[in-house]
Structure formats: C-alpha cells, structure tokens
Amino acid sequence: MQSQIKDDTTILKDLKRANDLIKQELANVIVGQETIIEELLISLFSRGHCLLVGVPGLAKTLLISTLAQILNLKFNRIQFTPDLMPSDITGTEILEEDRSTGKKVFRFVKGPVFANIILADEINRTPPKTQAALLQAMQEHEVSAGNETYKLETPFFVMATQNPIEQEGTYPLPEAQLDRFMFSLWIDYPSREEEKLIVRNTTGDIESKLKTVIKRKNILNLQNLVRRIPIADHVIDYAVDLTRKTRPKAEDTPEYIKEWVSWGAGPRACQYLILGAKSRCALEGRPTPEIDDVKRVSHSVLRHRIVTNFNAEAEGIQPADIIDKLLEGM
With 0-12 CB in 10 A as exposed, 13-18 as middle and 19+ as buried, what is 107? Predict the structure, then answer.
C-alpha cells in the first residue's frame, strides 16, 4: 500500500511536469486560449470527450492537431457533411478474392475513427444516423461491423466542433448524444493583443518546431492515476447536490429551476464533475480535489445537459446563467 502511494506521488509530479511542458509547447503555436487548453487536458486525462463551440477561424483544428503532435498520438480529422455515411467513419467490409485459394472473402477496412485523437469537424452538419456512428466508439471504445467487434487503441479522445452562427442545413445533436461529451467548451474571439500576435506569427515565414513531451504509455498511466486519486465525501456530496438541483422535479429544487428548466442533468454529470475535479487537481500537482475544483469545471460539464423551456427563452435566460445562480446559492 505504501509502495503504491509512493508510486502515485511520483506519477503525480510527472503529470504536473507534463502539463507544464504541454502548455509550453502549445504556446509556440496557439496564442491565448489558456482556459480552453486547460479544460481540453482535463478532459483528455479524465478519458472524456469535448464538444467545442465557436465561430470559424479560432484555431480549433490547429489546436487539436498540435496537441496530437505534442503527445505523439495518431490524429484523424473527419469533416462532417450532409452526405457522410456511418461507414465513412467506422469503416466498411469489402469483398476481395484470395489469390492463393481463389475464394472470395470479406475484409474490414478501418475508417478514420481508428486513431487516438479524432477531430469531428462541424458534427451538426451530418444527419443523426451518421452522428450516432460515433456513440459506440466514444462510450465503449470499440466499433462493430458485421459479426465482428474491433477494439480502438487507447488513449481515445474525440473533439467535435460546432459553428453557433450557421444553423441552416444543420442537424442539432440530440440530448442523448450531447450527454456523451464530458465538456462543452465555448471558444471566444481573442483579445486585441492576442489577435495582433496571431497576425504577426501567421503572416511570416517562421515555422515552430514542436517536440514530443510525453509518450502514449505514460498518458495511459496518468489517466489511471486520475481514477485512483482519493476524494472526500463532502466534495462528492457537493457534486451530487449541484447536479440534482438542476432537475425541476427533484426535492429541494429552487423555484427558478422549476420555472426555467425542462430537463436537468443526469448521473453522468456527477461522474464528470468528480473526474474533472480529480484531473484538475492532479494537473496542478495536488493530491486531492476540493469543492472549488468542482465549481471550476461545472459550467463545462452542465451547460449542455440543462434543457431550458420557453419561459427561460422568453426572458433571455441561458444555461450558463442558471449555473451561475446555482453556484451562488450553494
């Protein structure tokens, strides 16, 4: 037991060091977006997935591809379009002839989902049938084709993007699929100084050389460490109470929840609040999370799990406003 604790302490220091190095390397390419980068790493080491919402041109693709390069992981980008089929994501079986026997056999050709980091670009531009092709991969880390099931290599991380300003010709993600994403991250425009630096860096001929700062095996060890981090009962109670208060039919639910919310967050929100808190404290080199860690990840975990009603829309109330009000009252 003491040996395990000693090993975990060493791994915790390695995680803090890796976090600093990853952010340092990302800063060579990505300007600003410190909060988004922090939450991406929290999700990665929690074995979660992210939905990134932002207008075009905010370096969403560059961020995730750069992260894959720094971590030396296989990266695939899937551009979601209205004519994209499920087999275009998962792969398909083809009929080919065995030259040695002359018999025809089926062979499975793996699709782009067979990678460590997947960028599902503009996921709401494809029909629900194709969107659902990612569900099994995200939840079970496997793909079924025909009578066979194929395991995906870990770590496996999906980052999907959505454009909030173009809704024509889109297929909004159903709540059941939104719930599969640990975080919903909203990326905003850069500040004036950041935008000036972006223009300077991207209009010259200087190319940043990135180096790998952590190996795949170490990433898996760090993900396992996050699961082993101890957590106090009062922190779990806080996460459970926060989640339950988003449900209009639960006991002790505030009146404004009953007035503004149709559906609240499910049990998966509690799990991700705790995992996010554990990962956040580990990335900072702390041995156990506090309530403040739960608060810091609450917007990213809850904003896509709270379904507002007509009353909220009429008053201009957004899920973020409801979360702020909940946190103030707890």
Answer: exposed
Backbone Cα Rg of the chain? 21
- Look-up: residue for tokens 């095996």? 217
What does the angle CA 320 – CA 158 – CA 37 come to, to the nearest 5 degrees? 60
| Whether 277 contacts 238, CB under 8 Å | no
Give the pLDDT confidence of 311-321 residue by residue, as tens digits: 988 998 999 99
Domains assigned to the chain: 1-83+115-228 (3.40.50.300), 231-330 (1.10.8.80)
> Is 223:45 a contact under the CB 8 Å cutoff?
yes
Given pLDDT bands bounded at 50, 70 and 90, which one contains residue 327?
Answer: very high
Q: Cβ neighbours of residue 84 under 8 Å, at least 6 residues apart?
A: 78, 126, 130
- What is the pTM (predicted TM-score) of this model? 0.86
